[in-house]
Design goal:
The chain folds into two domains: about 140 residues, pyruvate-formate lyase- activating enzyme (Alpha-Beta Horseshoe); about 40 residues, no CATH class. By secondary structure, the protein is of the alpha/beta class. The strands form two sheets. A four-stranded parallel β-sheet has the order 1-2-3-4. The chain is globular. Helix content is about 30%, strand content about 20%. Helix 4 links the parallel strand 2 and strand 3.
Length: about 180
């Protein structure tokens, strides 16, 4: 999107869009140029602008073995999200599976996804999720105050919810999100 397009969509409280999920495919220009035929800088600029407009923003990264999953790149990406978009920005880490035009890579190892989640948490992100792989609590939302699971998920299904008007029922801490 161009800056003009974002501004035309307007602020969350009066504009056309209130929320977005952006794929941050990698954190190197090389990946964006070689794999996507695009540039990283406009993606980063747009995410910052979306946040300035007050949009609820979530970030998704598909971790592809050997292309965008180095510990350094993940730490840098997590640092950008926390520092520029805010600690309450959810980061969805998705497991890659060989398909279509990229059959030369294995599925993302569990250890890589867990390491990426740790990098996000170390950077200060309060909501880091692992997707495309079942595991204990990978998709759950935990209270940033006391750590209790306030939304439990399996795949795309909510299996348990204890939020009370956007707050943790155990400690009363506000849980970031858009709650209907």
């Amino acid at each position: 999107m161009s800056p003009e397009c974002l501004d035309t969509c307007g602020p969350a409280d009066t504009g056309l869009i209130q929320a977005a999920n952006v794929d941050l495919k990698a954190f190197t220009e090389g990946f964006y140029q070689d794999i996507c035929g695009a540039k990283l800088a406009p993606v980063l600029r747009n995410m910052k602008r979306m946040r300035q407009l007050g949009w609820w923003l979530e970030v998704t990264t598909l971790l592809i073995p050997g292309l965008n999953d180095s510990p350094r790149e993940l730490a840098d990406m997590a640092g950008f999200i926390a520092g520029e978009l805010g600690a309450d920005t959810p980061w969805h880490l998705s497991r890659f599976h060989p398909d279509y035009k990229m059959l030369d890579r294995p599925s993302t190892p569990q250890a890589t996804l867990l390491g990426a989640r740790e990098a996000g948490q170390a950077a200060g992100l309060r909501y880091v999720y692992i997707g495309n792989m079942l595991g204990p609590g990978y998709g759950d939302t935990h209270c940033p105050g006391c750590g209790v699971a306030v939304l439990e998920r399996e795949g795309f299904h909510i299996t348990g919810a204890s939020l009370k008007q956007g707050h943790c029922p155990s400690c009363g801490e506000a849980v970031a999100g858009v709650w209907a």
